Amino acid sequence: MPSSSLPIIAILGGTGKEGPGLALRWASAGYPIIIGSRQAEKAQATAAELNERLSTKAARGLENGPAAREADICVLTVVQEAHQSALQSLRADLQGKILVDATARVDFRDPRPPGPPSAARIAQEILGPGVRVVGAFQSVPAHALKKNLGQKIDAEVLVCADDLAAAETVIELANAAGMAGFYAGGLDNALVVEGLTAILISLNKYYGVKTASIHMAGLEP
Length: 221
Ligand SMILES: NC(=O)c1ccc[n+]([C@@H]2O[C@H](COP(=O)([O-])OP(=O)(O)OC[C@H]3O[C@@H](n4cnc5c(N)ncnc54)[C@H](OP(=O)(O)O)[C@@H]3O)[C@@H](O)[C@H]2O)c1
Known about the structure:
By secondary structure, the chain is an alpha/beta fold.
């Protein structure tokens, strides 16, 4: 375990596309990382790839449950279809933590906004008041996270939470990952961020890019 005064971040479902990108950014900024998976070996393989790329030992891999229990802050990046089942199975492990929900329930092939409630609100209802849920990173494309490490990402992060202190913690995480984060209201507002993801995918498709992102005007981070 690397010694660090920074919180330990577990990325639950961290073996896919979005999770390793976030993990890479935070490990690069010095945060201890636990990659979570349904299979410990798969998590360990992803952690090893990350450590190799950064020449570090910042990351290790565990099954999702133990990963959540050992972390201070958990980030949920399971495939969207598994959002509710994963939360139900991890409910006990997540008590007392901040849970960052990056879920955007948008079909890449037919991008349109999901209906209410937001994924983050659903997470809060499943997990109960012992977990502080924050919706964030739903609109940050995985490929942007993995490129140009050490440089800022051309994307800003709208952070939604009912608990302001938890939101401010996640804004710090966004900043550490190279993105400006902005508090954007309560958990129900996270539905709009999921919907914005549908718009970004539509823009990417029409303009033949992968880089459409959100920028705020009239605010200083
Ligand atoms: N991809 C992006 O650019 C992007 C951007 C912003 C937000 N997001 C959001 O981030 C989340 C993950 O997206 P992704 O593209 O990274 O997904 P992904 O690569 O398709 O899958 C992520 C992980 O989900 C886990 N998983 C699959 N089926 C599961 C099940 N039945 N139960 C529990 N875990 C399961 C797998 O981990 P194990 O097999 O190791 O358990 C897999 O590695 C989604 O909610 C998406 O909306 C994605």
